[in-house]
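Morning!

This is the sequence you dropped in the shared folder:
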Amino acid sequence: LQDVVLARYAFLGHQGRVGGYTIEQTKRFGLLDLIQIFLKESREGMQKLRQSIQINAIDAALRTAHTLKGASLPLGALPFSQACARLEIAMRKKELDQVLPLMQDI
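The structure's back. Tokens below.
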């Protein structure tokens, strides 16, 4: 993760959110908890995304891609967020032939 992201979480902690922990402390527990939650929820989201695409439920897939994109940004998972954004754009533009190749990027 980028230092600026870690610094932001440390600052939020200083404001009372997680008790004013330093960047190193945030790396050890506060941020790690958030990352674990993100990993669990993103695995579930990816499963939902695959299932939605398999049954051609494009609206549900689009919402899930959007959610995954937004959830990954605050943690600095930029490549994942960007891949989800490309997938979301393709579905919004109805470029359905691009969906499966873009899924490979995720």
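Headline: The first helix runs from residue 3 to 14.

More detail when I'm at my desk.
O.
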